[in-house]
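Anyone else keep sequences and structure tokens together like this?

Example one:
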Amino acid sequence: MKDIVDFLKIAERLECEYRITRMSDDTFQSVASHSWNMAMMAIVMEQYFVKKYDMAKVLKLCVLHDLPEAIVHDIPLHHQNDVCRMKKSMQEACAINKIMDVLKNPDVADCFNEYEKRVSLESKLVKALDRLDTTVQHLCAKDLKYVGEYNDNFYWKLFFSDEFAAHFDFEPILKKVFNEIRQRVSDRLKNELGIDSNSFIEGKE
């Protein structure tokens, strides 16, 4: 019982680890909330998935994919580069080893490693849900101005890019949901801030 309780004390930190994304009440999103949102999306879209997934594995990956951040913390995407990502990967591997020293349950480490390798259908789906949750927060945030505060509209340019949209192509329901979210966000930008979303798309005025 001691190892389970000690693990739960570590996992609780995900509720206290905050991302830069904002919620509808203008508070920062916790990593735990992010993981919960991904699991919720997997559940409500399951009936529409074209490919066959092990949904128990999908839900496990949703819950566990950011577990190392309980120790090494989240790094915002606009702060990441190749060197940073390599360092982050090494730190997360060490964090998983520390957590396994406490829990001694290889299934938890296997789930995290499966997500990191992104080879299985389930891990690819969960990565897409990881990206999709960020777009949901763009839609739900009480005030959209904060999204444009980073690196010359880094997040808006990413959100409205064809490259980002392509991450959802492999499942039609993901693409449909993303397109609906993107249109609603575009409408919010226009109505609330007077910003034309085309201004973030390369080659468009």
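And example two:
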Amino acid sequence: MKKLFSLLAIAGMLIFGAANVYAQEGSEPSAQEQVAPATNQSSVSADQPEEIPIHKAIKTKFIEGGAGFMAFVLIALIIGLAISIERIIYLGLASPNKEKLLEDLEEALNNGGIEEAKNLCRAKRGPLAGIFYEGLDRYSDGSRENIAEVEKAIVSYGAVEMGKLESGVTWINLCISLSPMLGFMGTVIGMIGAFDAIEQAGDISASVVAGGIKVALITTVAGLIAAMILQVFCNYILSKIESITNDMEDASISFVDILIKYAAKR
């Protein structure tokens, strides 16, 4: 392993050194470029506009849109993204491997009985293991009435787990709704400022109303962009919840069948 790391380090140094040499060779001017007149270089640089980095352009537009309303839009976006990331991580951990869990559960029932199966569910994490544990906790004699009680427990606890999966989605939808609203409010404020400028100037010229209209458009675009970003995350989260719910329902049916088979063997 140490030899592998040493080889990788040497290879990285060689690649880095070759890249530096290539960059230096590419950056060295040719003889014709060195003797070219200064006026020609200035004309070329004047024809090519300087590119503004994306972060500086966003910062400029943020300031031009008005720090007040743009800050509220940014806060809504940050809160929505934070909740979305937390939900994605939670749902990723809650995604059940139902086939493996059902196989382990059936093996535990056949080898150690109900208590062994309950210990298995305690050791597993996720909503599906919790649902199975509640069903096993209601199991007593395997009669038809007892199986009906197990099914009721599964349905009731499944609704509780569904609520946990959907927790936070309402706040994401709130941020999605607030973002364009805040942008439109900035639009209205910007238009009011434009009309105030017209009233003070006494004429309707482009230079008088351009500032207010610019603020209005920037805040609208910012609110719409924030809402679109959060909507993508929200739709992914809802699709993930739907997939987990379908797996839970399918696995619950198989779980009841396993219990019926176990009761028939006794």
